[in-house]
Amino acid sequence: MIDRTEQLSPPPGPVRLPVRPAAGRFLVLLVVFVCAACGLVYELELVALASYLIGDSVTQASVVLSVMVFAMGVGSLLAKRLRCRAAVGFGLLELSLALIGGCSAMALYASFAWVGESQTVLVAFALIIGVLIGAELPLLMSLIQRVSRQDVEGTVADLFAADYVGALVGGLAFPFLLLPWLGQLTSGLLTGAVNAVAGGLLVLWLFRRDLTRRSRAWLIVANAAVLAVLGTATVLVDDFERAARAAVYGDRVRVAVQTEVQEVVITGDREGPLDLFLDGRLWVSSRDERRYHEALVHPAMLGRHERVLILGGGDGLAAREALRYPDTASVTVVELDPGVVRLARSDPALAALNRRAHHDHRTRVVTADAFSWLRAPRGLWDVVIVDLPDPGITQSAKFYSQEFYGLITAALADGGRLAVHAGPSGSRPRTYWTVDATLRAAGFGTSPYRVTGRGSGPAGGTDSRAAGEPATPGDWGFLLAARGSRPPLGLDPDGPPPRTLTRASLAANGWGAERTRVRGLRPSTLVQPRYPD
């Protein structure tokens, strides 16, 4: 995108063009439009991939955008040295931007997969790409003034207009066209190719008389080389993804799909441990997922439980536990990603793990955002289970807000109970007890408890992401809640006995969670989220 740090006076002497000045001016503005669109795609690529690989989308967006805006100012100042040879300088600039910006997503993913560190690479690419984008304005200003010597103010206005419209197109094309159709890596490479072609055509055709024969030859060779690199990378991108995926998840990857919402990877099968990863985070490990899901569901089933609502839980494992009760009449699962539900139904190993919960006639699946779905009256439920991503993840903050729990209040029948996965109470006590404070602010009484386990994400206690890595012991923290009063911690004496949970262990787990209590915390709201730590 164009930086506004300075307005440049036109260089002396017009250039001879193969078209009339008006047409030449239009072509320059068209290239500004294309370059602005490409520049914004590079930015969004870095933000999206960094959010996926590193987490905390707000932080990653802030880092990328702030570094790039700063670097654009630096690039605008550095471009002064190239104004005397604006055509050659712009040609080299766009080639560099096409190569670095187009390959930035692959480089970031490679760093994550094989080195295990992405933050430094992210900042480096944001800085370099920002410098290159910022240098475009002084050079384009020089070129357009050589085409048509109009007033500087009018020229700057035209450049800004083309730049902003191009940014709009790039910003809309990335999430709605490039990402769903091509994926993150291929869309970056294709954007780089478009960038190189646009810059090359402008310089090598429109301003060819401004180049020496040697400069023209070098630019032709450089354009061909950059396009060859981008084309080769596009052809090999599937092999690259498979190799990087094997480096991250190990050699047991059996399913890897990009759904409408996220990347879903399954490793292992019926014969060995099964792990389910969502966007690079371990979500379910068959080694000990039962400890998590039994602790999440069974304490909430003490009492009336004919109608059960599960928010999240598209893997079917929480539904499996609720369906073990013969007097459960219906289980409604509200899941955002239909791809996860499809795999939970069709994948033999995952369907065996959830005991074909999605094929049970009592199960009903709704594809929707849980927050939006709860805003319209849907009936009343005896039990509500919140099986959603950790509250420390920025994207999940709204599901742990006072407003969200207020919506659940209206969905609970008289005497109904709510069970919430609230993150590890031992390693992140402020997050855990902020969820407790938020529930109480929404009118709930709460009973805290936790269970120990290994793994990652909601089905584990650490942040380790790679398959096969030795996981360290951690805990899953839960909160059992009811309107107005504190619900008792216990198990239904007439229900199916859990395999990993007893009344005695549940009482001990409640005492263990209580020992980590942090007092004086404020509730989290939509406008004042209190997560992460």
UniProtKB/TrEMBL annotation:
- Quote the Gene3D superfamilies the UniProt record gives: Vaccinia Virus protein VP39 (3.40.50.150)
Q: What is its EC number?
A: 2.5.1.16
Outline the extent of the PABS domain: 234-470
Positions annotated to bind spermidine: 293, 315
Out of the domains of life, which is the source? Answer: Bacteria
Its EC top class is: transferase
Give the signal sequence positions: none
Which SUPFAM superfamilies does the entry mention?
A: MFS general substrate transporter, S-adenosyl-L-methionine-dependent methyltransferases
Instruction: Enumerate the CDD domains for this protein.
Output: AdoMet_MTases
Q: Which Pfam families match?
A: Spermine_synth
Q: Provide the primary localization.
A: membrane
Q: Where does S-methyl-5'-thioadenosine bind?
A: 262, 335, 369-370
Keywords assigned = Cell membrane, Membrane, Polyamine biosynthesis, Spermidine biosynthesis, Transferase, Transmembrane, Transmembrane helix
- Cite the record's note on assembly: Homodimer or homotetramer.
Sum up the protein's function in the record's words: Catalyzes the irreversible transfer of a propylamine group from the amino donor S-adenosylmethioninamine (decarboxy-AdoMet) to putrescine (1,4-diaminobutane) to yield spermidine.
The record's similarity note reads: Belongs to the spermidine/spermine synthase family.
* The protein's name in its UniProt record: Polyamine aminopropyltransferase
State the organism of origin: Streptomyces inusitatus
Top-down, what is the taxonomic lineage of the species of origin? Bacteria, Bacillati, Actinomycetota, Actinomycetes, Kitasatosporales
